[in-house]
Task: structure prediction
Amino acid sequence: MRKLENSELDRLSVDGFKTITKTPIIVILDNVRSLNNIGSVFRTSDAFRIEKIYLCGITATPPHKDIQKTALGSTESVDWKYAESTLALLKKLQADGTQVLSIEQADKATMLNEFKPKKNQTYAFVFGNEVKGVSQEVVSFSDQVIEIPQYGTKHSLNISVSCGVVLWDVFNKLRTDLI
Result:
């Protein structure tokens, strides 16, 4: 087995990424504090061809050196926008037919492994603050809550890890139409 060189990875150009079919997923960061987490979410969103990222509330926006450090240029490929109010954004997205799903631990949550995305539906996944998670107001407004099953002692994942797990899972369930 031989490790591949970067030149062998068949990478898209930024222009190519902008024109290719995207996964019908919107990522919403609800008051995320860590600039490194924000950059990591951009990079993961690039990997799975996510449609758009919304940065809400106190979530910082590019360009910022600490976001760029982990994003590795993906702030240029992935479409993003800032929204002051997460709740106002969710209302607009729902009015456009997008299903809003908070990633949180909650009663009546659907476990990620049991979530079955529909092929012709756009989903907006809300990821919350590193300490407080997704706000209760946003959880209450969501169409559904998705929980990542965890079996250890902490039952707590870093937001960038949570984002990677959810995006990979949903991409994998939808990907026959995408690649």
